[in-house]
Amino acid sequence: MSVSIEDVAKRAEVSTATVSRALRGLPKVSPATRERVLAVAAELGYVPSPSATGLATGRTKTVGVLMPFVDRWYFGHALEGVDQELRSRGYNLLLLSLGGYLHGNKRRFTEQMVRKQIDGLVVLCMGLSQSELEELAKTQMPVVAVGGPIEGCVGVHIDDFAAATAATTHLIDLGHRKIAHLRGGVKDEINFVVPGLRAEGFAATMRSAGLELRPEFSVAGDFTAAQGAAAAGRIFDLPGEKPTAVFCGSDEMALGLMFEARRRGIRIPEDLSVVGIDNHDFSVLAGLTTIAQDPVEHGRQAAAILLDAVEGKPEAITQKYMPFQLLKRESTARLPS
Amino acid sequence: MSVSIEDVAKRAEVSTATVSRALRGLPKVSPATRERVLAVAAELGYVPSPSATGLATGRTKTVGVLMPFVDRWYFGHALEGVDQELRSRGYNLLLLSLGGYLHGNKRRFTEQMVRKQIDGLVVLCMGLSQSELEELAKTQMPVVAVGGPIEGCVGVHIDDFAAATAATTHLIDLGHRKIAHLRGGVKDEINFVVPGLRAEGFAATMRSAGLELRPEFSVAGDFTAAQGAAAAGRIFDLPGEKPTAVFCGSDEMALGLMFEARRRGIRIPEDLSVVGIDNHDFSVLAGLTTIAQDPVEHGRQAAAILLDAVEGKPEAITQKYMPFQLLKRESTARLPS
DNA sequence: CTGTTAGCGCTTTCAT
DNA sequence: ATGAAAGCGCTAACAG
């Protein structure tokens, strides 16, 4: 069967305590002993039992990641970043509760999922209800948010309001006046503040430029390409005046819109300028102007901050606003005057 | 601090053994006692310690998922499927070793990652070296492969050779004779058999149709859109005769190729027919003809098979070939004669 | 139906 | 520098 610390101890003719110390690189072990223990452990193929360690220390060396999806561009990449940092620091990654944003109120995120199971929690691109926050607070566990802010938590993400402002300003600078916004769906906006922040950034920028915010120019997708295309259809079908530019809350929606435009023979950027947020892998290929952000780095830094907190490093906790950058490509052009 | 089974036992005035039984729904507990225990547990907010349970039972109720990426279409969706099934059966999901396919030989997948830590392993879209297989065998742990076969393991995936045949046959049926293949890169083909299987399916089909396999018509991408576009460029730059159709080993590469074609003014399908494999979320929007498969379902079934094995269900282990389907869309057309 | 008693495999005082 | 021993919180015989 499985070899335990005791097997190693016997074979190395020391106590289990010494084996434990030697293997973990603690001081107060003579070099000779340490070497012998290491050799025996290797020879026997000893692997410590995380359950036993966890039980004895109260810490699991495991971090939970709470996220609604993995198949969205930002989410998957942020997860990669978290994974990189965790792995490099010897932590495991427990994936919690995919399955989308809640329908109604039946998300089952409870203390149970978390308590005694993980040392810290990364929350990716989702809000937490008041009661969820309370449950979490009870556990005393460090939490960091990635992709968007959560009240009372450290967060690593861009300033979404500012990013939306930059995107919108770019369109305005190009002379556009009739600008539409492809925003998140109801579910997105209930579950996560970021879609709303982007919409607000857009609205505020339009207002301060003295431009009209037509309600029919604000259309909901759900941050996917498919819904982006569908929502684009609704914009294109609008009677009366058409927008000359669209700010999309995500590149995935922007790409969906571009596909739909193409299907209808609407030329980009001649007939319509499009700007998104993300810099999705496909965006450079599609020539999509966008606000680029680096989710892998977000994930890495979030995990780093979290682990510092888990390990009790002083000054560990800090809010981080990550940089973003406008990438001008072929999907936006000056409005012909 | 944290409430333990003993706290519950005391408060309910029973032994810890009874609490344990009551909470796990075991028989031989009087309804009255069970109710009281349940009530006390709820009142105290008791949550069992997975470490303690794991140590006592030797099982962790956790399944590992080994995968090189999460940001590829198939991978992310398969992961969703695995997660769904695991969650519905009360298992946790430990994400192992992202970070791409190995460069050289330095992937660190060892017994250590796995032993005493998980009850079973899902291997997603990657091969395992002989030594890795041996390490795994030592653990006696059930393993199932998703997305492609692994020697000696149960697998859930499509028949990739047949899928490639179907795609290629579709092109041939449309009258194409000069057909190129956008295949996987060196790293993909070393680490995973699927790219090779698809290339072989293509080659075999071409041969049995009596068509010429020109070496310069076989170009390597790496299963991403970006590399698909780059590889497409190499095809388009070929001197002399051009292919009239391309079979792409994945939709992501096919989409990359379509973007590149568009950039160069190459019309699809008028100048070039394109078929992929996957039915990526963007494919329907792009009008890409493809061989559709359902990775979420693959993941679900793989997890189901794995858990049956973990739980010792008889006849649990079975190989599964999943269905696929040719979806004819606008990227393929009859070759004008 | 319920309680008692050993462990599970490790860490961690406290001695020595 | 090393060992002995007491837990960590739970489950699983075994008694009763």
From TrEMBL, chains A, B:
Top-level division of the source organism's lineage: Bacteria
NAD among keywords: no
MF-aspect GO terms: DNA-binding transcription factor activity; transcription cis-regulatory region binding
Keyword DNA-binding included in the entry's annotation: yes
Alphabetical list of Gene3D superfamilies matching this protein: 3.40.50.2300, lambda repressor-like DNA-binding domains (1.10.260.40)
Record's keyword terms, sorted: DNA-binding, Transcription, Transcription regulation
Protein name (Swiss-Prot/TrEMBL): LacI family transcriptional regulator
Species the sequence originates in: Arthrobacter psychrochitiniphilus
